[in-house]
Design brief:
By secondary structure, the chain is of the alpha/beta class. The protein has three helices and six strands; from the N terminus they run H-E-E-H-E-E-E-H-E. It has a domain of about 70 residues: Ribosomal Protein L15, Chain: K, domain 2.
């Protein structure tokens, strides 16, 4: 027999009839109609108010986040191996690295890390550089310029007045 729209049948036991509540005690679901005895959940519309739990319950359900997460933006570490791909005389800036796909965002702070490796003569403008990375760039005849980062506000040299 071919399977067509006029002879489709649902499989046995897949379509259960709806449980008819509160239709007398003989039905087995009368009186309390499967809601139990008394309490907020037994009342009409009682479950809607249960969404708003107390603060203690809310806090106890949150995961325990140990430690401390700083909101200060950390510089992105860029290894000097990345600089070996660039032509001699190139000025390497955070924007340049962003357009080359090294950084995810153009406004990221950049720290040059790593030592050694054969580098072309480059002018590197970054927010920070390790001693080894700086030495490697300068050994190749290039220069490293440190850019000011906007995150770290300069502390006033004047002492604060006592209150």
């Amino acid at each position: 027999m071919s399977l067509e729209l006029h002879n489709l049948k649902s499989s046995r036991g897949s379509r259960r009839s709806k449980k008819r509540l509160g239709r007398g005690n003989a039905s087995g679901h009368g009186t309390t109609a499967t809601r139990g005895t008394k309490g907020q959940r037994a009342r009409q519309g009682g479950r809607r108010g249960l969404i708003q739990l107390g603060v203690k319950h809310f806090i106890s359900r949150l995961p325990k986040m140990r430690g401390f997460a700083s909101f200060k933006s950390q510089p992105r570490a860029v290894p000097i191996a990345v600089l070996t791909k660039f032509a001699p005389g190139t000025v390497v800036t955070p924007e340049f690295l962003y357009h080359r796909g090294v950084l995810a965002r153009a406004d990221d702070l950049v720290k040059l890390i790593g030592g050694g490796g054969k580098l072309p003569k480059l002018t590197v403008k970054v927010h920070a550089a390790s001693q080894g990375a700086r030495a490697a760039v300068e050994k190749a005849g290039g220069t490293v310029e440190i850019l000011p980062s906007l995150d770290f506000k300069k502390q006033s040299s004047k002492p604060r007045p006592k209150a």
